[in-house]
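Quick one: C-alpha cells for this chain, please?
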Amino acid sequence: KKRTMPVIEKNGHHDSVYMNAAKIFQGIRTEKPKDRILVLYGDDSVSPMLTFKDEYSQRMSYELAFSALKYQDLLEEILLDSCVYPCQSIPDELTSLLVVMLYDLQDRRFQAREIFDEEEPVAEVRKVEHYLSNFRTKLAAALARYRIKHGALSVECVLPETIRKQEQKASALPLSVWVNTLKISLQDIVRDLQKKGFTKVESVSDFKRYTYCMDQHCHDVLLFPSSLKEELLNLNLFADCKLLLQ
C-alpha cells in the first residue's frame, strides 16, 4: 500500500530562526513617513550579521521575515490595538523580533510552539515569546476586530489586491526540484518517491495531490504541485540534499 503523507503542523521554529528573521526584517521593513510612525524599530544603520545553522534554517528565516513584511501594517495595528505595544520591558531594538514572532504566533492560531531540546536558547527570543504569550487573548481579540473592520474572512484577505494576485500566480506554479546525482540516481529517486506514496504522471496538467512529473527539458529535474512544498521539505530526501528545491 502507498504510505499516506503526514499532515504538517505549524509548531514554530528554532530560536536562531526568529533572531535571523528579525534581523532580515529590520533591513527590509517598510519605513513610514515621520508623521505616521507609531511603532519604533531602533537603529538599523549597521548591517546585521546573519549566521545560519543550515540551508533549511536560512530558508525559514527569510520566509518568516518576508511574511512579516507582507503583513507589517496588520501586525503593527494588532500590537497597538491590544495595547501590547509600547512596552518598557521590550526595547526598540527588539521590535522587529516582536513583529516576526507575532506573525508566527498568529500563524499558529496563537498556540504555544514546540520547544526543541537540542537547540541553544536565545534570551531575547524567550523574553519576547513569554511577553507575547501573556497577552495571547488580547492579541487574538485585536486580530478579530481587525478582520471584522475590514470584512476579511482570513488574514490573507487583508493584503492589497496586487499582492494577492502575485501570490495566486506564484501558488499556481509547480515546484522545480533538482535531483542531486552526486548522491543518488534518478532511478533510485523514482523508487523512493513511489514508496512514499507519490505517483508519476505525464505532465503538470495531470497533477493531483501526491503526483509529480519529469521536466521536459532537463532530465534531472522533477516537477511537483506547489501545495506539497512543506511536506516535500520535511522528507529525508531534502534533509540529505538528495533533492534540491529550485
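Confidence is low (pLDDT under 50) at residues 1-8.
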